[in-house]
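FAQ: What does the model actually see?

It sees only this:
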Amino acid sequence: MDLDASIRKVGALIAPRNIVVVGASARPGSWPAVVWETVNNFGFPGAIYPINPNRSSIGTVRCYPDFTSLPEKPDHLVMLVPSAMVPEMLLSGAQAGARSATVFSSGFGETGTAEGLELDRRLAQVIEQTGIAISGPNCTGNIVARSRLVTLVDHRKLHIQAGSVALVGQSGGVLLYANHILADRGIPIGYLITSGNEIGLTCADYIAFLAQEPTVKVVFCYIDSIKDPDGFKQACASAQRAGKPVVVFKVGASEAGRHAALTHTGALAGSTEVFDAVLGDLGVIRVSSLDEAIETIELIVHAGVPIGRRIGALTLSGAYRAILLDGASGTGLVFPTLAAATEAKLAQILGVGSMAGNPADGGFTVLTSVEAYLASIEAFCDDPNVDVLLLQAELPRETGMAASWEERFQRINEMVGRRNKKAVCVSMFSRMLTDYSRSVRAELGNIAFVQETNKSMRALSYLAHWSELARRTHRGTPAADSTTRIRAQPGAAADRIRELAARARSDEPVALSEPEAKEILRAYGIGTTREEVATSPTEAARAAERIGYPVVLKAVSSKLLHKSDLGAVMLNISNADELMRAYEQIHRNLKQGGFTALLDGMLVCQQVNGGVELALGVHRDPEMGLVVMAGSGGVLLELVKDVAFAAVPVSQERALEMLERTRIARLLRGYRGARAHDMHAIAATIVALARIVTELEDVIESIDINPYVSLPSKAKGMALDALVVLKRGSQ
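And it is asked to produce this:
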């Protein structure tokens, strides 16, 4: 992605010299009529021209038949013609001088028809040929407060006032409602851009532009799917460097695109987990609801970032203290012990000898006196252990209601402003604001007003995490840990896997057999069991003697992905007689299922007892690309789903962080007196997995190791089972 090109194209779209409405009409109630009225209603300073060869005028305004008859070169085109006409009309407009367009017309690829897909192709061809910047098609228009460009179709009254929030997304309806909710909260927007099908400009292009806009504090995105993953990552990284959070509400699990998910890793990699793994480190905040998005935006606009995790709370009741503690549970927010000077001051305010036994412990004070309330706020503002001052308070709905709160808010606003302290007022319930509430709120620029405890605490935690990540990024990524190395000799293995990929070339993903998969792992330094392939009971017995009993016997076939379910794995074989019986039993089990023809042989493996079973893997997500997984393994993997993901490539530090996010990390550290495991060695295996797919990205679809057994102390872990899946058509 060329960020400069994106910024230039979006710049042409949002600040045009003139607007040309193609397909303008005066027919009451029609979209062309509504859009024509809209673009003329909000003070756009340039000329606005209608084009419609079937009309001579729109009201009192002359209507032009084509682009060449306009008094000046067209700049921004608003396309309101049937989809079949769009590509050629855009081509004509671009050839006449137009730099950008908003295409309302639907009937393109979203229909799924051959005609719609062909229109997609033709429109993309025109964009490539002319370089014109396109919002849409199948979008509902845009709002740019600064340039007074308003093409958004909305039958409710719009108030255009420049603000620090930008709304971008593929659903005009969601953004339209978000705009009204923010307006109700007294938060004006600077930009609202509906991207539609994104045949031209994508969300990535808009984020890249907004990242360098000095008036923008936060970008909210509604996303169904990401059209340009690499560009999206670049744009979000640019916003992170600029200190601007990108808040995303993402819908649409990509299961339909996971036909290649033959591994546990692929099955577990839901769209949200992968999205977080890849984009979380780039400063993207994925909220779980649209309400959370509103509270997060409110905090960014009025409290600002960075925000710390340490909360000092002043409540009006003991009950609300418990509600806050429950709301903060599991978020990472903390209520710290107050500084000694703060406790002494609070004791004086409350008229007690000391704070012992008072609810001020843990960052809380419960107060009812107005003067004590304000004095306590001042004490909290001066406490170095408190990052955010949280007040149980809400805006009055009418004059005279909750006497003295207006004056109280003014004093708090001035107090936190002087001290540069974060102040957040939270209401117990979500509630509507009145015109009076908004008038009071407009005078309190230093205070954030959030609604309902649980979603507000989650929003605070999102921003605390974002702030920590921003500080870490600013300091720079730490050097890779050199204490754990895996000896790798991947050259021959890389050639071998490309040879296997060429031989197995297919239009569908193809799995390697277990011995072939483990050959790749060993070449990259990942430990496996001692094992040999046998094609007869006699060969299996000889292999078992060399390996040493007890052993495991498994069927070998790239077509048998879940061997345990088919009775094709026998464990704890302790002698030759048991081995012979196990060999025959596996044959019988496969014959009953009709799988004998798929058998390539038997794998005789070293039996490994004890240790902690993990699952490690790499998966190629259709949107986000390669991600690595680590977590609890064994037969309960998909049921328990104790896993963590990270984007590829992975550093040693990042791999350790992944492990720490799982519940099984407690076992690995030594649970209830058990011996600790070498987590650095496990992390090095994760790094090696990521290296395999990085170096063989052209042929590998996914890798699954389940289980990977970690043994206590410094004993080397090993892959007991492995599956490598090749990409479709790889060669």
